[in-house]
Specification:
Helix content: 40-55%
CATH topology of the largest domain: Rossmann fold
Number of helices: 10
Structural class: alpha/beta
Oligomer: single chain
Largest sheet: 10 strands, mixed
CATH class of the largest domain: Alpha Beta
Number of domains: 2
């Protein structure tokens, strides 16, 4: 798998002692094995409230003790899954989003769970994942589901956006690394309320499906040329992109989506499809930022 220029071969995982974080650690450890990478376990200790009095330092010490217990729990989980992986740790009093964003500057991948307890608390979609989708400098995986199909295909949506080229290429690279296939899904809504008009002027929706299928094939052929060993299965279907992607992802090992995060308005720049799959996917979801994808595309062309 191609690692973007300037990124180390390190998989970072955020932990907070929750069951969701433990699943993220297991997934990240297995991913580190797949990449031949080190695993860095990161925890953001909660800051004390501004009005808290901690003259003796006992409150801070208690939070630190709890943090180290959670990190040790994560280390044990990683060792069980991947005993030979190099493990690094980072514990710091900070906000989790900022800490993981900082880690993303040198990581190949940042992994988080879908729910949390402490330092990575609350609805991830509304906080950590959105923040990372807007500002992470490497891909982000939100581990969802119970890993029901670890050997399943990599599912990705195909659309007409320019950045979709980069999302597709990342999906092919992930499938190549896993020794699995790509299931590419293009979903669209035929304007069925105009069916009579369409019939009157001779429009046949099935013929438009064929046209769209040819466009999808063209996009996929470009990626297949860069990843010749990856088998591709394409589907042109009707309905919302999110709902159809979720259907195909039920047997997937990974669902790859794009992030439109380009500025500072957190929570406003994650596309509706990405938000929906992050809420409801039954498999891990990989978020790819366009800015990162442009770096990857540059690497591919230089190769």
């Amino acid at each position: 798998m191609t690692i973007p220029i300037g990124h180390s071969n390190i998989v970072v995982v955020g932990v907070d002692g929750s069951d969701s974080a433990q699943r993220a650690v297991s997934w990240a450890a297995e991913e580190a094995v797949r990449r031949g990478a080190a695993l860095r376990i990161v925890h953001a200790e909660l800051p004390l409230p501004a009005d808290a009095l901690d003259m003796t330092g006992m409150a801070r010490a208690a939070l630190h003790e709890e943090a180290m217990a959670w990190v040790q729990k994560a280390i044990s989980e990683a060792n069980e899954v991947a005993p030979d992986v190099e493990i690094q740790t980072r514990v710091e009093v900070n906000t989790p989003a900022w800490l993981l964003e900082q880690e993303s500057a040198t990581a190949a991948l940042v992994v988080v769970g879908s729910r949390g307890l402490g330092g990575f608390t609350g609805l991830v979609l509304g906080s950590i994942a959105v923040a990372l989708s807007c500002h992470s400098m490497c891909p982000v995986v939100v581990v969802r589901g119970a890993d029901r199909a670890p050997d399943g295909p990599v599912v990705v949506g195909v659309n007409g956006a320019p950045q979709n080229w980069f999302v597709l290429d990342r999906a092919f690279a992930e499938a190549e690394a896993r020794g699995t296939s790509v299931v590419a899904v293009h979903a669209w809504h035929p304007p069925m309320h105009n069916a009579r008009i369409a019939e009157a002027v001779g429009i046949v929706w099935s013929e438009l499906d064929i046209v769209r299928d040819a466009t999808v094939r063209q996009r996929l052929d470009a990626c297949a040329h860069r990843h010749p060993g990856v088998r591709v299965e394409r589907h042109v279907v009707h309905g919302s992109a999110a709902s159809r992607l979720l259907e195909f992802a039920e047997s997937a090992s990974l669902l790859v989506v794009g992030s439109r995060g380009t500025g500072g308005l957190r929570g406003m720049l994650l596309g509706s499809t990405s938000q929906a799959v992050l809420r409801h996917a039954t498999c891990p979801v990989l978020l790819v930022r366009p800015s990162l994808a442009e770096q990857m595309d540059h690497v591919h062309h230089d190769d």
